[in-house]
Amino acid sequence: MSERRTRPRRRRAVSGLAALVAVATLATAGVSPADSAPAPARSRTEAGAAQPVTRTDGVEGRMDTTAPSAARAHVWDLQVVGNRIYIAGKFRRVVEAGGSWPRRAQPFLAAFDTVTGDWVSSWRPVLDRPAYTLTVLPSGSILAGGEFTRVNGRDAQGLVALDPVTGATDLRFRGQVGRPGGSEPAVVRDLEVRGSRVYAAGQFSRARGPGGTLFPVTKAVRFAVTDGAPDPGWRPRVAGRSVWAVAVSTDGRRVHLGGEFTRVGNGGGTSQ
Q1: 98: closest CA among 111, 84, 114, 117?
Q2: Which of the two residues, 270 and 126, has the higher pLDDT score?
Q3: Among the listed residues 137, 141, 125, the one whose alpha carbon sits nearest the alpha carbon of residue 88
Q4: Which of 114, 130, 152, 238 has the fewest C-beta atoms under 10 angstroms from its C-beta?
């Protein structure tokens, strides 16, 4: 990778109960998390008084899928918009950090308040399988990618745009991916918006847009941010295993891919 990404990489799988922790308090105090003992959960009274939050509501729930092996709850991606942080991953429930620690069913996508740490119970999209990556479209909609096939009762193969306030499906964006001929679902593992385009990377072999026509791609594709129309003129030939990351150079002239593949077109790839 010769270019530094303009947005920080968020690809970290965080495992276990209450997998969201705010560490800004330690950072501003000049103390690293490694130098400090774990802080107890703050009460809702403290949070409501706008005190620094060191423990938020979190997620839990074992999930067995075709993508990596069975494990405890994993948060795979985070996206902050205004005073909300949206999370995507492999989890079943939200855990509220107060009282009797109630559990609320909310698989694979959830939102939390960045000030109080509270779960945003009004944002509840319904997915049938995990989500792995999030980005924001110019329209303001949250674009999620993963291995899901249905969202909010509609077909949504690997990609879906969601209203950032209500969680309803934004039907203006129709881009999807597919993986016909096999038993495993298509997977979108990373997204990158650049100008009027959004790039998707993962494990898939078809792309579809507003017209519904499928055309061949290999693990990477770009769509129009407005309606999700795939660009048939940009189809890198990726050989080998999956693509896990995509980034566009600052001058917009190169798209960088990372993952387990062995070759792109006629050039060598990487398995690092």
Answers
A1: 117
A2: 126
A3: 125
A4: 152
